Amino acid sequence: MAASMTKIGVYVCHCGLNIAGTVDVESVAEYAKGLPNVVVSKHYAYMCSDPGQRMIQDDIKTRKLDRIVVATCSPRMHEETFRKAVAEAGLNPYLIEIVNLREHVSWPHSHEPKRATEKAKALVKMGVARVRLLEPLEKRRVSVEKNVLVVGGGIAGIQASLDLANAGFKVYLVEKAPSIGGRMAQLDKTFPTLDCSACILTPRMVDVAKHVNITLLTNSEVTGVKGFVGNYEVSITKNPRYVDEDKCVGCELCAKVCPVKVPDKFNENLSQTRAISIFSSHAVPKVANIDPNYCLRLKLKKDVCGKCLTACEAKAIDFEQQPQIIKLKIGGIILAAGSAVFDASQMTEFGYGRFQNVVSNIEFERISDASGPTGGKILSPKSGKPPQTIVFVQCVGSRDKRFHEYCCRVGCMISLKQAILAREKLGENVNIYICFNDLRSFGKGYEEFYSRARDMDINFVAGIPSDIRSDANGLLYFDVFERGTNRLLETHADMVVLANGLVPNDDIGTINELFHASRSADGFLLEAHPKLRPLECSTAGIFLAGACQGPKDIPDTVAQASGAAAKVIDLLSSGEIELEPLKAVADKDLCSGCRVCESLCPFMAIEMKKEDKANVEEFRAEIIEAMCQGCGLCSAACPTGAIKIQQYSNKQVLTQVEAALIETNARGGN
User: Fold this and answer.
1) Which end of the chain has fewer CB atoms surrounding its CB within 10 Å, N or C?
2) How far apart are CA 594 and CA 572, in angstroms?
3) 157: part of which helix (H) or strand (E)?
4) What are phi and psi of 90, to 5 degrees?
5) What is the CATH superfamily name and number for domain 147-239+323-338+505-572?
């Protein structure tokens, strides 16, 4: 349709007082009536409401409107709402322009209403200029795989996998450790109910292993991801255990005869295990694993030792195992890779790594656990005796500009829990202190848990220790400035427990590259929108669950995992998905085959196709529509202008710029 025949409707939203409190919306609507091709211009309190949408739909039908401009809040908030509204009225949903008056005008210019109103008029004029050149587009539907990949076998990955599997989807759960369970498997009790962590987790671990719709891939890592939403091609490397999983019965006869002692990772290196061992007492799968870095036969690459080979009655030992590459077709992906614990040795003032009696909170969990290195008895690591004074130190590595400025969210509650457990196990004669910046008990039942700790004669000190020193017997000395009393306290302790914060996993960078999952300033994976799309990555078809997205406790982790699973079910349940048409388009006649776009595309959505012209081999860019996210990077970089983004052509954008310049000149350059 020629631009001169276009009939445009303009609708200005008050957004309550979010916009109307600063912008004179009546004046803006009146101004829009005089713009080219505008045949109707109205303002309303809430355009996104049902009456507001019906107003637009009625005008489309009665006034024969073929273009719509809605001056309202961010398009990320309600663009899809208005697209659906105009589509119901028979208008192509891509013949609508959203002008952002809230975030671009009323909020940043709240103290200058006159200038805000003039800016609003200019933006509406730009929107009208652009909407005249918009073209109708159609979504395309593609079929999808109903297989789901879950990366990470902690409580988030376990919950998501079970929800998906129970809904009938085939799930591949990938965990790099020899057993699922993650960080929660290392915990003694969980706050605020002090339930046994293993009692909650272990049955769900077993459910995962037995579920007919779940394929459990432990000792495995994702090494390649190609494709697009609904149709990903994933490569997984399953590292050798050197033990046949189908034959091993978990009898541990091999571990009993192995002569090589190694640090026990599950027990945070507080004890030793053997070069061949089962990962933990409640490992799933309960299959032995050989560490090639310590096994004499594998390390020396000679036919030495072999005691496990002889002892294994099931004949499960296989020193010839090699890495196995597994290729899968996947529809949706959930990233549940968890987090790591801050390395407190970076804070030299606390003496972690130098003094045996300074331990991290996760090490204390293993000490307190009945399956831990001391059988659940709380003992000072150096003396092996019950401590008489324990001090818990908060915010180690968190809320610290030297390391991480964010709150770890769980440190306060962990210390409260561990202090309560210490009181219950060690009795009334032991002195227990918690040194804190601020105590934050934000969750359901958490404040009551804090009160319970206070009632148990646990001492709370509003201050963080300075330099921790130790004598030859392991007794620790340090000073704390107590803010509540303005006194410097000299403290002696047999054990100091550091509340180490949560930090991104070491392999978060690899995950970022493999899945094109963006990261926030704190290093964790970034959600598409903190309020509207908190479970999604910016890459379509990839979802987030648990502490890989940011520090969180177990209830929040489980809730997010179930939410991510529900999102995947919603995405794949119909067997096909719609592709957003706002993608890049390549003009082969203009393409020079320089490959600049191919090298820049962060979504690998551009392929160079070979063409033969006059017996000359040439390459031309071709956009893989399903993979393209419409970011525009290729269009901006293309030296020949061969690539454009649908609805964002040079002409459409420059028309807006020209309208803005004319408006500015009309106001005398202000």
Assistant:
1) C
2) 37
3) helix 155-166
4) 95, 5
5) FAD/NAD(P)-binding domain (3.50.50.60)
pTM of full prediction above 0.85:
yes
Q: How far is residue 414 from each of residues 153, 439, 448, 552, measured CA to CA in Å?
A: 22, 11, 14, 12
DSSP character at residue 533? B
Distance, in Å, from the CA atom of 93 to the CA atom of 193, rounded to the nearest integer, reads: 51
Over the stretch 522-561, which tens digit does the pLDDT of each residue have? 999 999 988 888 999 988 899 999 999 999 999 999 999 9
State both tokens at 648. 């964002």
CATH number of 3-137+651-666: 3.40.50
Amino acid at the residue 670: N
The neighbouring-strand residues paired with 317 are 243
Report the distance separating Cα 31 and Cα 41, nearest Å.
9
Q: What is the pLDDT of residues 620-629, one digit of tens each?
A: 999 988 788 8
Q: Residues 328-378: pLDDT tens digits? A: 999 999 999 999 999 999 999 999 999 999 999 999 999 999 999 999 999
> In this predicted structure, what is the pLDDT of residue 4?
59
Structure tokens at 549: 């997205």
3-state secondary structure (DSSP) of residue 5: helix
Question: Parallel, antiparallel, or unpaired: how do β-strands 8-13 and 140-143 relate?
Answer: unpaired
Q: Which residues belong to CATH 3.50.50.60 in the chain?
A: 147-239+323-338+505-572, 341-503
pLDDT of 1 > 70? The answer is no
Tell me the C-alpha distance between 330 and 229, whole Å: 9
Torsion (CA) 248, 308, 198, 208 in degrees, nearest 10: -20
Q: Alpha-carbon distance 517 to 549, whole Å?
A: 10
Q: What is the pLDDT of residues 383-419, one digit of tens each?
A: 999 999 999 999 999 999 999 999 999 999 999 999 9
Tally the C-alpha atoms within 13 A of residue 307's C-alpha that lie toward its C-beta: 15
Q: Residue 664 pLDDT > 90, yes or no?
A: no
Q: Which helix (H) or strand (E) holds 143?
A: strand 140-143
C-alpha dihedral sign at 185, 188, 191, 194: positive
387 Cβ contact list (under 8 Å, min separation 6): 357, 378, 379, 380, 426, 430, 493, 494, 495
Q: How many CB atoms lie within 10 A of CB 399?
A: 18
The pLDDT of residue 665 is 65
> Where are the domain boundaries for CATH 3.40.50 in the chain?
3-137+651-666
CATH fold for domain 584-646: Alpha-Beta Plaits (3.30.70)
pLDDT in tens, 550-604: 999 999 999 999 999 999 999 999 999 888 899 999 998 899 999 999 999 887 8
**Pairing state between β 389-396 and 495-500:** parallel
CA-wise closest residue to 396 among 346, 442, 435, 344: 344
Beta strand 469-470 with 195-196 is unpaired
Residue 548 · residue 159 · CB < 8 Å: no
- For the chain, residues classed under CATH 3.30.70.3270 are 584-646
Q: Which CATH number is 341-503 given?
A: 3.50.50.60
Rounded to an integer, the average pLDDT of 134-163 is 95
Least Cα distance to 519 among 504, 534, 531 occurs for 504
Torsion angle, alpha carbons of 357, 362, 364, 366, to 10: -120
Instruction: Pick the closest to residue 234 from 243, 222, 242, 246 (CA basis).
Output: 222
Residues 6+ apart with CB under 8 A from 615: none
* Residue the block writes with tokens 């996104």: 48
**HEC secondary structure over 248-286:** CCCCCHHHHHCCCEEECCCCCCCCEEECEECCCCCCCCC
Residue 593 has which token pair? 């085959």
